[in-house]
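REQUEST ID: PR-0412
SUBMITTED BY: lab tech R.K.
PRIORITY: routine
TASK: structure prediction, single protein chain
INPUT:
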Amino acid sequence: MKRLYVFVAVFVVFAFLINRLMATAPKAAPPVSDVVRKAFERTAKEAREAVDQPKLKCLWEKPTRPRFKVTDKVWPEQFGQAHLCLWQDDKLAAMSYTIDDNGAPDHTWWIEQGKKYGFRATWFVISGRMASGGYWGTPAHWKKLKELGHDVQSHTVTHLHLETPGWDGINWEYAKSIELIEACLPGHKVLTLAYPGGKHTKMNSRVVAAKYFIAGRGTVGTLNSANKIDYFNINASGGIHVRQDEKGMWGNIRTLLDKSLYRGRQYRGWAVYLAHGVKAKQKEHLSSIFEYVKANRDKFWVGLFTDVVKYGQERDSASLKVTRVDDAEVRFTLTDGVDDKLFDFPLTIKVRVKDDWKAIGATQGGKAVKAKLITHEGGTFALVQAVPDRGEVTLKPILQSD
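STATUS: complete
OUTPUT:
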């Protein structure tokens, strides 16, 4: 009998220990469904094949080093010298607002803020839902935004919802989204993509995206250094702010204007704000950003996402050459290394002119282009808007009668 008691006691202790071990042991991951597994296998195959397939002529590869040195504004010293400005109108830094996932109920608020603070925003839409109504919007919503100067670009067809009937791979997600948006907005051009997040985000592929788009926006929280923008994983965040303390300097847009902050890492860079649905607390947060940017509108270029992408890639691959300088005119050529059919945004060229030039005219390839005179520390300069590969640019003074 005594041995039986001992056996029972040992058995109870053993069972207790086994139960404890099973309770604390990591649970096995649930099996991946055949649908998801096959989808990942398919997109991996598409990405491998895309490596050797034609890409759009753009800067799609990740930079391994800074493309140039970031400096303060440059002011050419001699008459006829020209300089390619870092941002449009020689602004110190760039700012863009982007909204994901359609968010039709928030359109009115964004439109009001754009009018109040003087900006236009970019909507990255789930194109398979852009005519569904409700939160996802209707064609009328998107047409109104375009009429007001805002932009509509791709957030894929389904946001990588693999269970969607007819789901047909990552090439389809990207290419079909362009087709759907351009059908909804005749005459509109879809050129940029915001990669969908979520549990299937690893299906996204820059090499596949480069077959259809000139840039892809990610969701990394830091600001973009002007000289090392990864155009197929552009940083964006809803955590951008303007706080006066030293916390979270990685997302503080004050660092774009002040090189003494954050060791100058983000000085003269590009901030991309990423929004989804905007609730009361986020509206308050955004208002602080809007106010700061407006108060510094002489320093910020607030540009549409695709416009800033175009400017950046044209600038980063550009070649500027002054071809003639005399009392009557200054001439220069401007070329770049990206596709002229897709990249048509004017770059700002700063040219030192004579101080007695009180008005100017500018042409490119024989057609008039925008130009204006500014002064700095007693010198006179022209800011000329020229598109690369569109012909020689000529600057001439305009004689004014008394």
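NOTES: The radius of gyration is 27 Å.
REVIEWED BY: pending
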